[in-house]
Structures
1.
Amino acid sequence: MATTSAGIHPAGSPAIASARQEESRIARAFREAVIVALLVAALSFFFIGVRTDIAPGGLDIRMRWEAWFTAIAIGFFGRLLLNLFVFGRDWGVGSRAGAARGRLTEAVPNLGKWMLRTFFVFAALLPFIAMYLFPGRDRQLIDVSILIMTYVMLGWGLNIVVGLAGLLDLGYVAFYAVGAYSFALLSTYYDFIGFWTALPLAGLLAALWGMVLGFPVLRLRGDYLAIVTLAFGEIIRVVLLNWYEFTGGPNGISGIPKPTFFGLEFGRGEGSFSDFFGIPYSPIHRFVYLYYIIFLLALVTYVVTIRLRSLPIGRAWEALREDEIACRSLGINTRNTKLTAFAIGAMFGGFAGSFFATRQGFVSPESFTFMESAIILAIVVLGGLGSQIGIVLASIVMIGGIEALRNLGFLTYIFGPDFDPAQYRMLLFGMAMVVIMVWKPRGFVSTREPTVALKEKKRIGADLVAQGEGH
Amino acid sequence: MEYFLQQLINGLTLGSIYGLIAIGYTMVYGIIGMINFAHGDIFMIGSFISLAVFLILTTVFGFAFLPVVLLIVLIVAMLFTATWGWSVERIAYRPLRGSFRLAPLITAIGMSIVLQNFVQITQGARVKPLPPQVQGGITLIPASEVTGGISVQLSYMQIVIIVTTVVLMAGFTLLITRTSLGRAQRACEQDRKMAALLGVDTDRTISLTFVMGAALAAVAGCMFLLLYGVIDFYIGFLAGVKAFTAAVLGGIGSLPGAMLGGLLIGLIEVFWSAYFTVEYKDVAAFSILAIVLIFLPSGLLGKPEVEKV
């Protein structure tokens, strides 16, 4: 269907031929639009055209013809416009865009590195930028940045397992949960434990769990590994949900202490942060401080990953990703290699979890559903497997995009007062996952530099590296 | 003993539903080697379509003769759910054919999110209760002093489910073993490139595989609705994971294996709830999955996978 005849002129009279082609292109666009409209009609009839509701004495059904016709119309015109203006066009695939990118990389030799540096400076100054440029909305902005940064860190943690070692993990949220619950439980049972003492403990416990869960799955590969890790993630969540005496079950644990700045709390009065430094109290201080904690944690994750990649263990991971059998025949201990990948990835998940607990002040099993794992994995894959900067881009696009939807209040003027954009955010998130993957199956950043090279470093196209399929 | 028999019947009923969903997983995995993560949600879609058709028939048109109504519900649900299955494949999987393996998995997860939220938005997040439609049953062993006051019941609904499953399985086996479509499917499963070279339209075959899987999932969704009487937009996830467990347990790629795995998972779940704790029944199912994969990676009826270098 995608193979259009536009641009190929048969011999003879090119003008007439091209006119005929143009005509047939429009006719085809209409035909396809009609097919899509029929399909939309069939698909949406029982969901958009009909609505079932609980009514006294059973279920009630009501027809929504208008909504159904609107959906069909959107399907028809959407496909028509796409066909006329996007699909049929001769985009010069791989020529213009590819050349532009080539020129760009030539002009700026280390584009990735420079981007990373810019990001770094921007991220380091972000709270101040927010405070000076958007004084009214700084708190909200910093809050979203904290969220994005958390996902960047989780993405970088999972990247060690999936991107570097090539082990497809669908239960990463388990370690996030272990970290969060470790801190929550430690702080409820032992009063003297604060965030900074709990952080290493949470990381340690998560790493331990990474090994415990990693050990049985050493022999599994690819999709099987994915489904077993998913099962483990669910098991941990179900246990947290039902072990009422210990974890509080569905009620979760509340009253988790906030982090302190070298023993200084963020509040009013004696011995608080603002009191000690003699500045006027402002609630924003705590958010800025939380932002810098997660920034620091993410930075540690980044640096550790970069350093590990050039150590023997990191190279063993990458070798494992490329070919496990070759790896084993070259004398690499695949068991230890896999376990360290699981453990280190899990450790960063645990750190992030413990930060999550202190930020929220409350944890419950609801925060650790499979959906979280899916979002983190989506960020890693959409960013481009193994690419650190790609994960940052994907987090900003996906998480920032979701959060931005919350602020589209003006849409209520168009769609009426009942319209709530927030309820569409997961739908759009799912669509974005599909569309981005179909558009760029290798993720945003799909070229990579090898960690080690024999004579000179060459940029490798994504097709050559990293199947990332865990085989 | 009577309690055990009763649970056995319940387990087989639930297992039939899992088995029907599992076939969709196993066929797709067999033919293109991917976990169709959205398949559980296709089951959910089937369940919602069944509910809507049922309500339209009974409240709008006023049909009252239940067997005919159920037959129409089943057929319409299969048709429309199959359309959903086809569309999901066309939108999210076909463009990525031949791409690296994680890509379709991500689009599958994306599709699953889309389907769940689509249904949540259009039909609401609250559960839809449907009062039991098929009532009554046969008492196999009446309650008495000897049985300790427990009777063994085989409800008509359970009979309907088991009979439908058996009939569908028989038809399906014929389809796979006797028709040209089934032959094309088996050829694609063995070697897709070779099949394409020998003139099999592989894209069409794969599409039809999704269509058949979705139709069977629709039957499972319809049965689930009638058996439990409560559905919501989230039922697909857990049912999907368990059905996948069933497919893996039976040996992925093997159709009798999927059915056998489904029955076993149903039995394990029901017996676990009956004799141990209800809360941890999912943990039991997931643990079985992990144990089977670790000790018996090719499942009960699957072919051992040969590692090629």
Note: The first strand of chain B starts at residue 128 and ends at 129.
2.
Amino acid sequence: MELAPLTVAVPLLAAGGLTAASSRVSRATAEVVALAAVLALAALCAIILARTASGTEVYWFGGWEPRADIAIGVSFAVDAIGAGLATLVSGLMIAALVLMWRYRDTDAPHFQVLMLIFVAGMVGFCLSGDLFNMFVFFELMSVAGFALAGYKVEEQEAVEGSLNFAITNTIGSFMLLTGIALVYGRTGALNLAQIGESLAAGHVDGLVIVAFALLAAGFLVKAAVVPFHFWLADAYAVAPTPVCLLFAGAMSELGVYGIGRVWFDCFAGTLALHDDSLRLVLIVAGSLTALLGATMAFAQDHLKRLLAFATIAYVGIFLIGLGLLTSAGVAGAALYVVADGCGKAALFAAVAIVQHRRLHVSERRLRGEGRELPYTAAIFALGALSFASLPPFGSFFAKSVIEDELIKQGYGAVLAVLILTSALTCGAVLRLIGRVFLGWGPVSDREPSRDEEAAPEEEISSARTPAIMFVPALALALASLVIGVIPGTVEAVQAAALHFTDGSSYARVVLDGAAPAAVATPPPYSAPPHAYLYAAITFGTAVGLAGLALFGRRLAPRGSDPLRRLGHAAIGSLHGVHSGHVGDYVAWLVAGVAALGGAFALALS
Amino acid sequence: MSFLPYAVAAWLLLVGLYGVVTSRHLVHLIVCVTVVQASTYVLLLAIGYRSGAAAPIFADIPRSTPVVDPIVATMTLTDVVVEATVAALLLALAVQAHRRFGTLDPDELGAMRG
């Protein structure tokens, strides 16, 4: 496992080298160096992923191995879920850098340096086996993320979005750190496995519950779960579109991963008796997030905000999968993260192409302007089908695994949430395809809002799209499809989830240097017939919603429908809650932490 | 070990959050963020503190001397470095906000509604 530290060292060294030589480095050199570093990183992550397929592998920095079952050093403890996430991150980063190549004249090499630091923080977070190091990598990723979100600092929106992002997430990080301090105060340990052993030997009391609630809150802020989600749409809407590939494809998901890591390796042993109640809390939070995100996504006009709210919606689904607290739930969520991450990143890459050609991304103003962009439309269509989780997209199998587990655990009602979320997000993308690329729907009769007048990312519109911009978009869209087609993927993820959820085997590997416990090879997976039925219902609902949004006014004269007025009022109040005011966001955050702590205290006591 | 440092940490956390929520000036708001952050320092140091113990430097004291926990001090130092970066970045953004909006009142920024 000597390769593990290189995953962080390579991008950081490249970033350091570029910074040191910043006055003499041309834009092309900076791009080549950054791309080479990230390609090397992706290769490293893929090798580590292949080597961890049979279980967790540990690397002790400086050779400080545990003495007498006590971890004294700092470790990377890598399993296939963490390594898989790291591989996804580096793959998305390659796509983002390629997209950036011809995208806009960035301020080299600072942009590349920030991207490299960002990816180093994300990968380190995925591989770390130490709670405090997780925090440090989390902060490294966050700070680089704040700077990247506010990169277009000459725009009002970018400054405000980045401020909201930075302040909300920094408060979240303090919650995380307070939780870490409480855990350390109780256990005297920072190694995840050691914490797990120590907590399991003690008793459950208020301190353990508060510590877990604070850790969860810190991760949920990054994951943007309701009511911690407000910053996300602001940040994603203003960040340069290639950066959004990383934000939407992986950063939010890392928050969900963090909760899983901490639960299964540290707290599952001591709170195992209460996992039924915790399951309820997480699934309710996930369902609320999914429904709110999907509704808001459907109500957006700004394409990047639409995809940002879709990101929130899918984080809700991932939280439902993880919240089942079983290996099957984790497997479904993990597969969904990869499939949906590629699909969403492809959509963002397609938005980048639209922006490159038309300078703005307001759906109403773009009506019919995409007629001569058939390839871009095709990428949007692939993304919409991935949202609808139609077979054979990877998201279909992921969703079917989660659905089976929901039914098995007695949460069958949550299936409706999954279907509605997919239908709303897919419907929103279908509507934009109809409006932008086919010119369907009514001509906009209202004043363009400030949002729509946002300054363009580029100064001049381009008559044609450089072919290289299509490469990442197409590759990502195809990746979201291929994941479902490769035989054995589902089974491999199921095996990885079995390792991920086995905290006691993890502890033995980390503390005793034991070989990972063997897991039973999962039987070949085939989706049950009702999964196809659900997929058909989802897609049908999505088409219906998109049609209603485009042609609803023609079918029923305006204003006559009380139902529609009620809908407008509800959407209006939802818009009103998303005030863009950072004080409001932090107030929601504090209320959310209190609610989460209260729910955990009720559930776990 | 007295109860007091934990009470101070909790107080700093709450008063800092109150400041962030109600602030009418971005620089004031960022200072409130650093107050919240100070609560983590106090908490970490309180956890590792032992009454009457020496500093954890064994150059000139017997190995059996009780010492305060050096790990929390290290964590606090790391925390200081990380959050100094965040504060610097936030203040830089506040400068930009003043340049673009002509105000530092978060109530009047409002480019992000809905």
Note: Chain A touches chain B through 50 residues (CB under 8 Å).
